[in-house]
Amino acid sequence: MDLHLKDKVVIVTGGAKGIGEGICRALAAEGAIPAIIGRSQADNEEAARQITQATAITPFQVVAELTIPAECKNAVDAVLAKFGRIDGVVNNAGVNDGVGLENGNYEDFVASLHKNMIHYYLIVQHALPALKLSKGAILNITSKTADTGQGNTSGYAAANGGRNGLTREWAVELLKYGIRVNAVVVAECWTPLYEKWISSLPDPEAKLKDITSKIPFENRMTTSAEIADTAVFLLSDRSSHTTGQIIYVDGGYVHLDRALANG
């Protein structure tokens, strides 16, 4: 299926690694031009190099620390200066930073919101004039923690609830511009960051087996490519009547009875 994404310019925050890198790779495979925004120039350039090698598309990259509001604007301005257009935005950057309630504090909680939600708002706000012209699409990557809770991660859970709320709110506000807004919810997805976390545990193999045993569909982790395939569809005009949707690509983890996984 041709997704009609050739030469479309799509911002992907956190596009150098994990889910973001997978989305950039899938976009490039469709002929789109990913604009990677990330804090590490080395990581951005390496992701761009690998994507070019695999697809012959050369991504654009911008170094930005998205917790600094001014850098959100500078990053969007850099994309516009290069291409003169923005056809889509994927908000993806963030980290499950373990800022809880009992042992947390105001400063860390607010910092977590900056890491995980506030730049979602700022990137889209700065890109909005260009998105109006292109009738582009917005995709927010969010987490199961907004639905399930996790414990000791108040900042991240609150941010993801906010990401979902912004998805529906923006879908309403931007109807008049023909801009579609959707979200993809991630549960247990295998990424380098996830692998690093698993490897830090006393018995990584047992922990991974316990986690996958609770994922109803095929008792396995979601892959970055599976998230990416859904993402590029939602960014394309093949999903032209889909907006305000929060879509779970999680093997049934959130909504199916997990007893099924062991049945």
Would you write up a description of this structure?
By secondary structure, the protein is α/β, with parallel strands linked by helices. The protein has one domain: Rossmann fold, CATH 3.40.50.720. Helix content is 48%, strand content 16%. It has nine helices and nine strands. It has a seven-stranded parallel β-sheet with strand order 3-2-1-4-5-6-9, with helices on both faces. The chain has a two-stranded parallel sheet with strand order 7-8. Strand 2, helix 2 and strand 3 form a beta-alpha-beta unit. It is globular, with a radius of gyration of 18 Å. It starts with 8 loop residues before the first strand and ends in a 14-residue tail after the last strand. The relative contact order is 0.14.
Helical residues, percent: 40-55%
The portion of residues forming beta strands comes to 15-25%
Task: Please give the number of β-strands.
Answer: 9
What name does the CATH topology carry? Rossmann fold
What general form does the structure show?
globular
